[in-house]
Amino acid sequence: MAGIEGGGYGEKCGMVIVKARYLIPDPEQCIENGAVAINGAKIHRVGTFDEIKAWSDNNTLVDLGNAVILPGFINIHTHLDLTNLHNRIAPTNNFTHWVFQLLGARIRWKEADYTASIEKGIQLCLEAGTTTVADIANTEYSFSALKKSPLRKVVYKEIIDLNPDHVQDVILKVQSELSAYASDSLFRTGLSPHAPYSVSKELYQAMSQLAFQAGMPLCTHIAETQDEIAFLTNGTGNFPGFLRQLRAMPPDWQPLGLTPIHYLKGTGILENHPILIHCNYITDEEISLIKSSGASVAFCPRSHRFFGHTNHPVRKLLDAGINAGLGTDSLASNDTLSILDEMKFLLLHDAISAKDLLAMAAVNGAKALGMASEVGQIKEGFEADLCGIRLPDGNSGDVYGRLLDAGSKNIFTMVAGVICYQSSFPS
Ligand SMILES: [Zn+2]
Q1: Ligand 1: distance of its center to the CA of 212 in Å?
Q2: What is the pTM of this model?
Q3: Residue after which a domain boundary falls, among 322, 343, 368
Q4: How many A from CA of 221 to the centre of ligand 1?
């Protein structure tokens, strides 16, 4: 019989045992008839159900049945405020056209619209087995809605200003806004200077210093389009016209003659172990620069397809030993907020092994967010962040193959020992 005995949604129980047909505490280990004992917010014991049961049989039991218990997924790049734009933006390989569509689609949005969109995104993440998100906050509403949510999260303040004369004003504004949001056990703030075509070099430098002084994580969109490279290297492509239309192009702006990662190197950003979002168009030399800096890369596979980009260098990044995690990006360029769906897509299209995908979906994400000693693995003393993936019926193929089969589905999400989602499923 699969089901829950005792406890309930959102309730924090003293001691809970979650069991399932399989437990994969990290990509290299698979335990049949596995179980996890949880004490409060932390993982207390990990093993077979028989081992855990022998230790104590007096606890609340959650039996996930024909499922795999995994570390909760870590989505290292998303914009939850765009969730309600799903299917409102047409797929395009013209990025600036996409931005105009996006700006137009929410031109009349008010606080309630932003909040509803973010809250919908939070719910979709929990339903998909995601326990930690790295979200980009374009407005204050992302901070307030996410802070209240049961997800573990790093919320990055998005910073956009290409005029170097505005640097001091931007610093004061950012400091003032972030001072309203204190960190807690599930919530941290970070800084996201948006991209090289929307942030001046001087502002990147200032944000790098601010992040260093405040011990805040950093991320930035980088090497996303060929237009970005044309803009940075010689001031051509779609961006100059786009920025002039938005009245965001400083009159005396000059191209720096640098490709994106070289450009970032000159700002100090790379020294702060940032998450480099996308890295769709980078050279082998830039891969070496990323590797020596210790930066991580956020790869968003299905958003990458939405924009029609050419093959992503993800295999090269992994082979170079760079820490690469997975992001969904937003529903303005994707169909779901599911990291499991990203893994299934990558298995089919980029021939990355299931074990590498599991690492990208959890432990690599934890490293990227500076949380590798807290989450990303099911380990005694770690935070009790788990998900449970129901396997398709039948026994053909190994567990890793069935886990990433089209028919698998998340049925259980726990963050810090709290059951945040559990689907009804047959016994
Ligand atoms: Zn993004």
Answers
A1: 22
A2: 0.95
A3: 368
A4: 6
